[in-house]
Amino acid sequence: MEWETLKLEGQGAILHLVLNRPRARNAVNQQMLRDLLAACTAIEERTDCQVVVLRGEGATFCAGADLKEGREAPDTVTATMQRPRLAALALQALTDLAPVTIAAVQGHAIGGGCSLASACDFRIGADTAQVAIREISLGFILSWRSLPNLVHLVGAAHAREMALFGQMHDAATMLRWGFFNQVVPEAELAAAAQALADKVVRQPPIPVQLTKQSINALVKALDGAVFHADPAAYALSRRSEDARIAREAFFDDGPRDWRFR
Amino acid sequence: MEWETVRLEGTEAVRHIVLNRPRVHNAFNTRMLADLLEVVAAIEDEPRCRAVILRGEGPSFCAGADLKEGGVNHTAPLIALMRRAKHGKELRYRLGNMVPVTIAALHGHVIGRGVSLAGACDFRIAADDAKLAISEVNVGLTINGFFGDVVNLVGLGRARELFILGETHPADRMLAWGFYDQVVPRAELIPAAEALAARVEAQPPIPVQLTKQSINALARSLDRALSHANPAEFGLSARSTDGRLAREARRSGVPPVWRFE
Q1: Residues of chain B neighbouring A98 (CB-CB closer than 8 A)
Q2: B220 in contact with A at a CB cutoff of 8 Å?
Q3: What angle (nearest 5°) sits at the alpha carbon of residue A54, between those of residues A51 and A60?
Q4: Average pLDDT estimate for A6-15
Q5: pLDDT the model gives residue A27
Q6: Three-state DSSP class for residue A255
Q7: Shortest Cα distance from A171 to chain B (angstroms)?
Q8: pLDDT tens sequence across A153-172
Q9: Are A132 and A171 in contact (CB under 8 A)?
C-alpha cells in the first residue's frame, strides 16, 4: 500500500513501513503525519501481522520535522499548537500498534526522526547512525509529546544532555545509553532487522501483544497526562524573542545575547 | 464530505456530529466507529470551531453496540475481537481530546457504547425521556475504556451500580448522580445544547482550549494505562460460556444456570 509519503510493504507476519521522502531526507511534514495515522489503521487491520519494521528510504532514516513547512505555516497560536498535536496523535498510533515495532536506523535520526524511532519497541542502528535533538538550537522544544519515550530509553540525565545541548551522538554512544538495542555495520542493517523480526514471529502472537501492551502501559502510564501541554509549551517557545535570536545566530559561534522573552 | 452513518452539520463555530442510523436507534457498528474517527479528524482541521454538539438522529441517541455485527456469540478470531475493542477505545480518546468543547445532547436510549460517547464529552444535556443503561455485563461482555469518565462523574459507588447491575435509569436520577449537567423537555434539547455552546463561544479561545486540556489530563491521567487490558478482558468474556448463556437468556427469558467458565 502507498500513501503520498509512506509505503507499507510485505505480507503476513512481517510488514515494512517505509518513510518515503528520500529527497527531503524523510523530513516529517503534515502529510507524513496524516499518512502515518492512515498506515497505522491499515496495519491494525492485518490481524496476521506480528512485526512492523519502520525504516527510511534513502541514506537517512529521518532528518526531523520539515523546517521549511514550519517556517511557511500560519503562525497563529492555535495553528502553532495544532501541528504538534497532530504529530502526538500519529506517534501515539505508532506506539500503540499491536504488532511489535522495530526501527532500523541508518544515517540521521534527528528531532522528529528521533521521536519516530523512540516510539518503536526496538531500535537497531547502523554503525554510521547519528541521533540528535536539535530543536533547542532553534529556540524551541522537542514537542510531539515525544520526550517521555526518549527519557524511558536513555534515562533522565542523558535525555537532558541530548535535549539541552542539541548535539549529535554517534551509534556507539546511543548503544551504550540504551537508545539502540543493537548496532551493526550499515550493510548488515536490513538483515539484522529481519533476524530480530524472525525471532518475534517465532513467539505466539497473543501473549506477545498482551505483554508489549502491558509494558508500554506501565512505563508510559502518565506520559500523556504530564505532557498534555507540550503543544502550548512549543507555541510559547517558538514565539519567544529568544527563538528569533537563536534562529538568527544558528550558523555563528559567537555568544548569544538572550533577552529572556 | 459525507459519511454513511454520521452527519456533520452546523456553523463554523458550532459543529453538530449527528449519529445517523435512526432505524436502529443509532446502534454502534464498525462503520460508525470509522466514520466518527474521520469526522473527529475533520473537525480538528477546523481551527475556528469552538464547540461540538454530539447528538443522535431519530428516537434515540445511541442504543449501544450493534449486536448483530461480529456474530452474536463473538466467533471472530480472538485477535480480531481484541483489535475491534482496542479501536473502540481509540474513539473515546480522540473524542475526549478534541480541541473544541464537546456537548452531548442525549435523548431516548443511551446505552453501553452510547454512554461511553456521552462520557467522553465535556458536558451532557439530556432530554427528560433519556433512559441510560450500561448493559455490557448483562450480555456477557466487558467495558472498553470508559470506566474513568463514569467514575469521575458519578463517584465510585454509583459507578459500580451502573456497570455491575446494568439497569436502566431515568433522566432525573442521572442528573442527581452527576452524569447529566442539565435535563430539559425533549423539544428543548438542541436549543439547550446550542445555548451552552454560545456561552463557550463568549469565552476567549486559547485559555478555554488549554484549560479544558489540563482538566482532562488531570481527570483522565491514568485512563490509558489502566484500560490497556480492556481488549483482553473483552475477548475473554465474549468467548466465555457464561457470556453465551447470558445472551441466550436475554432472548429466551429463562434465567441461566452459570457454569463459571
Answers
A1: 79, 82-83, 86
A2: yes
A3: 160
A4: 97
A5: 97
A6: coil
A7: 32
A8: 999 999 999 999 999 999 99
A9: no
Residue type, A206: I
Q: Which residues of chain A does B94 touch, with a Cβ-Cβ cutoff of 8 Å?
A: 89
Are A225 and B47 inside 8 Å of each other by CB? no
Cα dihedral A41→A43→A44→A45 (10° resolution): 90
Locate B241 and state its grid cell.
460460556
Locus of grid cell 549529535: A168
Q: How many angstroms separate the CA of residue B211 from the nearest CA in chain A?
A: 10
Q: Establish if A214 touches chain B: CB-CB under 8 angstroms.
A: yes
Four-way CATH pick for B6-186: 3.10.270.10, 3.30.70.920, 3.90.226.10, 3.30.450.40: 3.90.226.10
What are the cell numbers at B214? 489540563
For residue A218, the chain B residues in CB contact (below 8 A) are 225
Angle at B233 between CA B232 and CA B236, to 5 degrees: 85
Tell me whether residues A229 and B87 touch, CB distance under 8 A.
Answer: no
pLDDT digits 0-9 by tens, A168-189 = 999 999 999 999 999 999 999 9
Domain parsing of chain A, residue ranges: 6-187
What confidence tens digit (pLDDT) does each residue in B8-23 have?
999 999 999 999 999 9
Domain positions in chain B are 6-186
User: pLDDT of B55-109, one tens digit each?
Assistant: 999 999 999 988 777 555 567 788 888 888 888 888 999 999 999 999 999 999 9
Q: In this complex, do A47 and B79 lie within 8 Å of one another by their Cβ atoms?
A: yes
Find, among B250, B254, B255, B253, the residue nearest to B64 by Cα: B250
Asked: is A6-187 a CATH 3.40.30.10 domain? The reply is no
Cβ contact, residue pair A213, B218, below 8 Å? no
Q: Which residues of chain B have pLDDT under 50?
A: none
